[in-house]
User: Which sequence fits this backbone?
């Protein structure tokens, strides 16, 4: 929408119309009492490149269309995207995905122990990092390829599909061989080359919101994956940076209904990384269910005191069944049952 100044002359309005028409957009002149607005309906990219702001009589150019395309609920996609991972439904109004597991694959015993417990409690997927993005290069970065083997074993034993992070495009084939869902971590949400690689792997992608990323940016990141022909993307709100330091990040629960309005993609919440404190994980998980999330992803450990990563936010494995039952009860209030 091009808004003209109150002083704009007929000739200036005509000049803008003619310039717009060179791009092939449909032009609509809307004379008002004070100002004339000119609607341009069509490809916004071509219009952006015209430099209309510099033309005589133009006050401002206001983009009306959304900057994200394929992730948008506005264009082709009016219906929510629903798909199954190994028979477990993700998305849609009736299911709530409980994804749980250790932050990091530390050992075979630790991972299998947690996997058995979360499977018994009704989780639909096992999480666990073999390649970990760490703030310090001196921190434990995961077991790497042997960690993927352990996840494969946990999958074989429990039947739970596995979600694990892809950190590096060079490892894409290796990770895709073992993962049922490819996780793109918050720190890589805008790693566009990695997003394109992930989009080509033929596996669903769990895309976490960047620490300081807007929801528009999250949906444009999703566009990178969708553009590769991969329709199976799960968005994840995992807390953002704000002035508040009491919690590790600030869980933006309003992101969930906003994303549901603006996108067709399933949305889950990670209360573990958002809060950094296991005592807050259950109330936030219940909140996620209340605002209509399609599920949660949480960290669980049998002995969080000795966890190599994110111990303070890990739920005690021995408490997990109760946690799962209570969260499921909240999800049921919204008409959802565990996937
Ligand atoms: C994770 O889920 O293992 C993780 C590192 O989370 P995030 O990318 O959201 O920090
Ligand atoms: Mn973690």
Assistant:
């Amino acid at each position: 929408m091009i808004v003209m100044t109150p002083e704009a002359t007929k000739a200036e309005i005509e000049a803008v119309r003619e310039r717009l028409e060179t791009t092939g957009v449909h032009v609509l002149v809307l004379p008002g009492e004070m100002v004339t607005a000119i609607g341009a309906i069509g490809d916004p990219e071509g219009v952006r490149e015209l430099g209309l702001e510099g033309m005589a009589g133009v006050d401002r150019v206001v983009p009306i269309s959304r900057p994200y395309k394929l992730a948008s609920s506005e264009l082709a996609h009016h219906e929510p995207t629903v798909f199954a991972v190994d028979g477990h439904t993700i998305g849609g109004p009736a299911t709530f995905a409980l994804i749980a597991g250790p932050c990091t694959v530390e050992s075979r015993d630790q991972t299998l122990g947690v996997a058995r417990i979360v499977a018994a409690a009704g989780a639909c997927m096992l999480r666990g990092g073999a390649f970990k993005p760490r703030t310090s290069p001196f921190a434990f970065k995961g077991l790497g390829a042997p960690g993927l083997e352990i996840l494969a074993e946990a999958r074989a034993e429990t039947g739970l599909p596995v979600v694990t992070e892809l950190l590096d495009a060079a490892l894409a084939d290796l990770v895709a061989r073992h993962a049922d869902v490819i996780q793109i971590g918050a720190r890589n949400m805008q790693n566009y080359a990695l997003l394109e690689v992930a989009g080509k792997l033929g596996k669903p992608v769990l895309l976490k919101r960047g620490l300081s990323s807007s929801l528009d940016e999250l949906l444009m990141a999703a566009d990178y994956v969708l553009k590769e022909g991969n329709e199976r993307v799960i968005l994840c709100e995992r807390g953002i940076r704000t002035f508040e330091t009491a919690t590790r990040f600030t869980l933006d629960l309003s992101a969930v209904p906003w994303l549901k309005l603006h996108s067709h993609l399933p949305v889950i919440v990670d209360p573990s990384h958002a809060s950094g404190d296991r005592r807050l994980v259950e109330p936030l998980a219940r909140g996620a269910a209340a605002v209509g999330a399609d599920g949660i992803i949480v960290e669980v450990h049998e002995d969080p005191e000795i966890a190599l990563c994110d111990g303070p936010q890990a739920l005690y494995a021995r408490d997990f069944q109760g946690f799962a039952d209570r969260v499921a009860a909240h999800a049921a209030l919204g008409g959802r049952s565990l996937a």
User: Anything to note?
Assistant: The two ends are 44 Å apart (CA to CA).
